[in-house]
Specification:
Distance between the termini: 17 Å
Number of strands: 13
Number of domains: 1
Low-confidence stretches: none
Number of helices: 2
Length: 201
């Protein structure tokens, strides 16, 4: 069964911080429809070491469609992303060998880079963040996006999350320079060879 409520959040990012027992970097986001939170995995705790890539001056898939979206939570119809299948100008959007391994307990490097990306968006008066992942609304009234990582190729307890065209990622747009920053996160245990249901082959 795929991740629930696959969605895309677009809005104005605010300064964030690491929180929680299972550390996530939480980015508050203001939109015309309310406030949301983006929860980004920044530390491995269970042996599934994090793989990540923070790419400056890159093009996202479907740039025009992203810019045309209204603020808030959107269904990613026609613009869903897939680490294995999505291409940009005939090349893979991201490749596993372009990602860096973050060992267990080594949260500072990825945390620092997420802070830097968010700060770049804040410093641009009209900077925007786009978060692909699973929409949630908790009992305390907080709403946001999590599962900001590859959501296929899992075995074991996370196999239930497998699916295609439902991977998570962050894209930041800086209008002052007309540039984009992309953030991709996966787990070393996830296979990049998957079938049409996102299960490892």
């Amino acid at each position: 069964m795929p991740v629930p409520n696959y969605s895309l959040l677009k809005g104005d990012p605010q300064p964030g911080a690491v929180s929680g027992k299972n550390p996530h970097f939480r980015i508050p986001v203001n939109t015309a429809t309310g406030s949301y939170t983006i929860d980004v995995n920044v530390e491995s705790t269970d042996g599934s070491e994090v793989l990540y890539a923070v790419l400056q001056n890159t093009a996202p898939p479907n740039e025009d469609a992203l810019l045309a979206l209204p603020d808030g939570v959107n269904p990613p119809t026609g613009i869903a992303i897939d680490y294995v299948r999505t291409q940009i100008n005939g090349a893979p959007m991201i490749a596993k060998d372009a990602m860096t391994l973050l060992p267990i307990g080594g949260s500072s490097d990825l945390n620092d880079q997420i802070v830097s990306v968010v700060n770049q968006a804040i410093q641009d008066d009209n900077g925007l963040i786009y978060a692909f992942g699973s929409f949630y609304a908790d009992s305390g009234g907080q709403q946001g996006i999590h599962d900001i990582h590859m959501n296929q190729g899992n075995s074991g307890s996370f196999e239930k999350d497998n699916g295609i065209d439902q991977d998570g990622a962050l894209f930041v747009y800086l209008p002052a320079t007309s540039t984009w920053i992309s953030v991709f996160i996966a787990f070393q245990t996830e296979s990049w060879n998957t079938d049409d249901q996102g299960n490892p082959v």
